[in-house]
Every structure is written in C-alpha cells, then in structure tokens.
Amino acid sequence: LLPFAIGFEWPAALRWAILTTMTLSWLGFAWWTTRAQAHRSPEHARVLREQDQLLTELRNFVGNEIDGSRGEVERARDLIRQAVSSLGGSFDAMNRKSRQQSQALSRIVDRAGDEGNAGLDVARFAQHDSHRMEQLVEALEQVSG
Fold first, then answer.
1. Which residue has the higher pLDDT, 31 or 125?
2. Which residues are listed as membrane-spanning (predicted)?
C-alpha cells in the first residue's frame, strides 16, 4: 500500500500513517514469534528432543549403510578387474596356441609342397591324417592285446 501512496502522491500524513502501521505490524509479528519460541511447553521440548535424537540415529544408520555400500562397490570393482585380467591372460594363451597350430599346419603344408606335391589340400590332409590314426589304433590294439 505504501508504494501506491508514494506513487499517487497521497498526503504526507496518510503516507506516514501507512508506514507507521506497517512498521508496528512487523515489530508485533517479530515479538509474537520470539515469545512463542521462548515459551515452549515441556511436552513440545520433549518432542523436539526425541525428534532430534531420531534424526541423529537415522543419519548414523544411513551413513553406515552408505559406507558399507561403497565398500561392496569397491570389492565388486576389484573382482571385475581380476576377472578381466584373467580373461585377458586366457585370450593371450589361446592366441599363442592358435599361432602355434597355424605354424605347425604351415610347416606340414610346406613340407608337402617341398616333396613335389605342389601343396596339400584339406581333403588330402584329412585322408592322410585318418590313415595315420588308423595305424595308431592298430598299433595300440596290438600292444594291448
């Protein structure tokens, strides 16, 4: 209301009355609020203490749970790191074995090519391997029987 009084140039006495009323209202509200807080009942004070105690317990509980969760997350991260490392090692070993097998097959094919067969195709290799396996089985039967 005071901005209207100043904006419309109301008489000075009316502006001062509005300003005084507004100031006294604020002072009365501040006094009433302060007095209400100072004169709390014992029941109200007890409820506030219980509420504060419960909030403290809740903060401690939540803090402990968060710390426990952080520990579990770190433990899971460590397990994942170990698993990834182990898996990487397994892939490296598998890669080495694959290279060794590839080199062995290349040597077999190169030897066959050196003998004048002009290389070795897969069917001939399988047939040759099958014949060798039959010879091995026959030799094992003779030794065991």
1. 31
2. 12-32
Structure-token match 């001939």, residue found: 124
Domain boundaries, the chain: 1-37
What is the average pLDDT across 34-52? 81
Nearest partner of 26 among 2, 60, 55, 51, judged by Cα? 2
Q: Half-sphere exposure of residue 105, counting CA atoms within 13 Å on the CB side? A: 11
Mean per-residue pLDDT, 60-81: 94
Answer whether 139's CB lies under 8 Å from 132's CB. Answer: no
Q: How far is CA 114 from the centre of its chain?
A: 59
Spell 8-23 as b/e; 16+ CB within 10 A means b. eeeeeeebeebeeeee
Distance between CA atoms of residues 36 and 24, nearest Å: 18
**20: closest CA among 10, 32, 12, 30?**
12
pLDDT in tens, 101-113: 888 877 776 766 6
Query: How many C-beta atoms lie closer than 10 Å to residue 98's C-beta?
Result: 10
The pair phi, psi for residue 121, each rounded to 5°, is -90, 170
